[in-house]
Please model this.
Amino acid sequence: MTNSEGTETLLLQVPWDWLRHQSFLRSPFFPVFFSLSVYLSCCLPYVCLDLLCSRLTLVHRFKIQPQSEVTWAMAWRCLRKILHNHVCFIFPLSVVHWYWRPVFAPALAPEMLSIVKDVLACLLLFDMQYFLWHLLHHKVPWLYHVFHKEHHIYTATFSLMTENTSVWEMLSLAFFTGLNPALLDCHPLTEMLFFITNMYLSVEAHSGYEFPWSPHGLVPFGLYGGARHHDLHHLKFKVNYAPYFTHWDRLFGTLKKARRKLRKTLKRP
Model:
C-alpha cells in the first residue's frame, strides 16, 4: 500500500468508525431524520435567496424566471406536503425495512475511488429509471393526472417544490434511490453519500437559479442539463424528461435547449 492509499484509507476509516458506533444509525427513526435533514439543508440556501431576490439585484440576475415570485403560501404548501409524506409513509416503511433488514455496518470503510465510481453509477442508473418513469407518466394522460400532475402545479421551479409530489411518485423515487446501491452492492457509507448527492442535485435542478458554479457548468459537452434545463421542463411539460443528464433526451428526441433568459411569470397550469 502506498502512502497516499494509506492516508486515504485513514481519512475515511476514522469518520466511518465513529459513525458505525453511533446507536442512532440503527434506529428506525434515522431514515426519516436523515432524509428530512438532508432535504431541508439543501433547500435552505435557495429559500434564503428567494427571500432576498426581490431586494438584491445581484441575486435577481441569476434567477431563471426573474418575474416569478415564491410566496410563503407556496413554500408552506410544499413543506406541509413533504412533512406529511415522511410521517405517514416514509416512517412506517422505514420501520418495516428496519425490522426485516437490520442495518449492517462493516468494519472497513470503502476506498475513495470506489465511492466515486459507485455514486456515479448509481446516479446514471437513477437518471435512466426516472427518465423512463417520467416519460411514461407524461405520455399516458391518466398517469399524469392521477400521479404526476401534483409536481407540476407550478411552472417556475423553486427548491421546496422538489418533493412536492404525489405519494406514488415519492415512493417510486425512494424505491429507485434505495434499489441502486443494493444492486451495486455499495458500502453503507457510499449509499449515504449517494443519497446526499442525489438530493442536492435534485434540489439544485429545481432551485430556479443558475450560477456560474452550477453543476451543469462543470460537466463538458452539454452532457448535464442543470437547473435551466429542468425549469424548461416545468414550463413546457413535453421536453427534458431526464432529471440530470441529457443523453436519454437526445436519444428519444425530447431534448430542448433552454434560452439564456426566460420571461415567464409563475402561474398554475
Observations:
- The longest helix spans residues 72-100.
- DSSP finds ten helices and no strands in the chain.
- Residues 262-269 have pLDDT under 50 and may be disordered.
